[in-house]
Amino acid sequence: MKVLSVILVTSALGACANQSVPMGAQSIGTSEQPTAAVAQCIARKWADRAQLPVVSQTMIANNQAVDIYLPGQSQPDGTAATVRTSRSPTNKTWVGYRAGDSAGIEATADISTCL
Question: What is the distance between the alpha carbons of residues 109 and 29, in angstroms, rounded to a whole number?
Fold first, then answer.
């Protein structure tokens, strides 16, 4: 029974580590900065622009995958930046944009400045 549990946990962790691009997200670009730094930059830009709190949701431990929601957007389907650890050996971070209830040119421009 313990062997089966270990196999299930290992499989689940492996699946999380190899997640693909989130559904509905369009690629904005990649960065050589760590995932946490890019996510923090996007959250700061959006909070400063809107003068409202920004919600970020860690999707995978150690900030390897973070969703940052535009102010006023609800989880899990609201407009968000999706920041993930890149699979490319030359970049550390991949960033996408998922338009939920609203879309904005300013939002994607803010993301681009954080890359």
Answer: 11
Tell me whether strands 65-69 and 80-85 are parallel, antiparallel or unpaired.
Answer: antiparallel
pLDDT digits (tens, 9 = 90+) for 25-47: 889 999 999 999 999 999 999 99
Confidence of residue 60 (pLDDT cuts 50, 70, 90): confident
CATH code at 101? Answer: 3.30.310
Total-model pTM: 0.76
- What range defines the domain where residue 50 resides? 22-113
**Is residue 9 in some structural domain?**
no
